[in-house]
Every structure is written in structure tokens, then in C-alpha cells.
Amino acid sequence: MRKNFLKLSDHTPKAVLQLVEETLRLKGVGRGEKPLAGKSIGLIFAKSSTRTRTAFEVGMFQMGGYAILLRPDEIQLTRGESLHDTAKVMSRYLDGLVVRTYSHEELEELALHSSIPVINALTDKYHPCQAIADYATLLEVKGKLKGLKLAYIGDGNNVANSLFIGGAMLGVDVTLATPKNYMPPQDVIDTAIAIANETGARLNITENPQNAAKGADALYTDVWVSMGQEAEAKLRQEEFKGFIIDDRLLGLAKPDCKVLHCLPAHRGEEISASVIDGPASVVFDQAENKLHAQKAILKMCLGD
Ligand code: CP
Ligand code: NVA
Q: Is the Cβ atom of 155 under 6 angstroms away from ligand 2?
């Protein structure tokens, strides 16, 4: 059966754990395995990307395949060709599509009309590829996932949504500290809680970053202003004041607490320079692990 990777909750907790473990296994293997020889993917990126796009292109190459970048303004999509026709045509040439776009519903529509696997490289609602790299990084640095205390400080955005659901699936105790109007949508919260009831993960949402950080094994943050929210930048910079991972907040966590950030980061907004460039930070290992996570996802979706 065709396997898409649109959001974590489409998959079982077991499959998500397998992806996390496969990420670290592939990191160990390096360029030694070519499970996607002769296969091609298209990368449709409607938003900027430094890491995800590079990781998919390089990852595909390292596994013996080929990746072609299809910028929306260079294909007929932005000249009125429908998603439906684009998906049907692409399915005749390619073995998979990796898509970064705005509306998650549009991605679902594209997937509906494709006969090849579609992978979500970020939508406004979810960033599932990121969550695989994040939990692989936590497993790598902590040696386990079950029972870890992860505190996410900041916007209840695409990254937070996938992290919350992913934590529920993997048995990680996730606390989200977000301002009241920036919590994840109710359906994301409901999905995460339903999964956590099965796995035993403990989930919390608070408006208090200090309470979230207390005794945490890992702290995580992301930008206050995501791609597409530029018009709200001024308001958000006001509303998120205090939701910064700085030395004071880090001091409330466990002494061996690690700090994650999906990047790109804004030093002095959601994270201080002293923390992101300090000894607790694993953000560049996390960025490196995106390469191996994207490889694991490609292999699951496109492999034989
Ligand atoms: N973390 C992440 O997805 O980075 P890019 O936007 O650079 O791909
Ligand atoms: N929340 C951020 C993540 C970037 C990788 C955004 O959507 O812009």
C-alpha cells in the first residue's frame, strides 16, 4: 500500500518509534546503503527552507536516488494549473513528492490525487519530519525516551503540534508553555491526549514557562513568528515576552538538561545567545539528524 507521511497520527506509535530508531541506525551507516537506487522524488517548496530541503536532496542522493526541486513559481501551479492535475502528472514521473506549503488541507488534497507517496516537509499545522529528528536527537543524547520530561516554551505552532503528538506516541512527558491565545488547536490537543491515554505519556499545557521548565530533561523552543505570519510580527513580539529560554529558565531544569531548537533561531527573542551557543545546546546535532530522519522517512515511504 502507498505510504504517505502527512502527519504523525496517521501512523502507529510503533511505526513512529521505528522511524526514530532507524534515523540513528542510518546515521551510523553513513552512505553505505542504497535502498532507493533508480528512484526519483520531486520537492515542491512554497516556503523557504535551509535544512529540510537540503536534507531531502542530499539524503535521496546518499541512498542512490535523485531529487528534483520544483519551485511553485517555476511550475504551472502558480499559473493556474490545479493541484489535482499537478498531482496526477507528477505521479507519472516520480516515485514520491516532498511538499512544504501553507495549508495542511491543500497538502491532503494533493496526496488524495497522487498515486505516489507524499511527504509533509512542513505545513502551517504540522512539521512531522522535524519531530522525527527531534526525538532521534533526544534518544541519542539521553539514551531513552520513555518518561523523559520535555518542556516546549513558546508558540503552539506546527513544530509544537508535531512535538506534542510525537511525545504522546513515544511516551515522552511533554509540557507546552504558551501564551493563552497561542495554544495548539483543540483537535491537536484531543488527538495527543487520546494517544497519551494509550501510551501512558503525561501531557500538560500551561501559560507559565517557569513551571514547565522545572525539573525538565530537555527544553525546546521555536520562533515566535512562523513563515506566513509576518503581518503579526509586532503583536507576537509583545505577546511572547517572557517565553524565552535563557540562563534563568535553564537554571530551573535538571542540571544535565539539553536544549533543542528546530532552527532558524532568533537570538534574544525565543532563546538567548548564551543558551543556544552554550554547553546545554544540541541544536546543531539536531539539525544534522534531520538528514538521517529524512532518509528514514524516504526509505519507509519509497523503499521496497
Ligand atoms: N527546521 C527546519 O525545518 O528548517 P528549514 O526551514 O531550514 O527547513
Ligand atoms: N514554525 C516555523 C518552523 C520553521 C522550520 C515556521 O513555520 O516558520
A: no
Residue 293: CB atoms within 10 A of its CB come to 31
Cell output for 143: 539514551
User: Residue 197 Cα, ligand 1 centroid: separation in angstroms?
Assistant: 31
| Pocket flag, ligand 1, residue 263 (CB < 6 Å) | yes
Please tell me whether residue 106 adopts helix, strand or coil conformation: helix
User: Do 268 and 144 share a domain, yes or no?
Assistant: yes
Helices 51-62 and 283-302 cross at an angle (nearest 10°) of 50
Determine contact, residues 23/289, Cβ cutoff 8 Å. Answer: yes
Do the strands 149-153 and 96-100 form a parallel or antiparallel pair, or are they unpaired?
Answer: unpaired
**110 with 142: CB under 8 angstroms?**
no
Clarify whether residues 38 and 150 are in a common domain: no
What is the pairing mode between strands 258-261 and 96-100?
unpaired
Contact between 181 and 239 under an 8 Å Cβ cutoff? The reply is yes
Q: Quote the pLDDT of residue 162.
A: 99
pLDDT score of 120 more than 80: yes
Query: Could you tell me the three cell numbers for 31?
Result: 552512505
Per-residue pLDDT reduced to its tens digit, 260-285: 999 999 999 999 999 999 999 999 99
CA distances from 143 to 45, 135, 137, 140, 202 (A): 34, 11, 10, 6, 19
**Are 56 and 46 in contact, with CB atoms under 8 Å apart?**
no
Three cell numbers, residue 175: 509540557
Residue whose CA is closest, atom 6 of ligand 2?
Answer: 226
Which residues constitute the domain of residue 55? 8-126+290-302
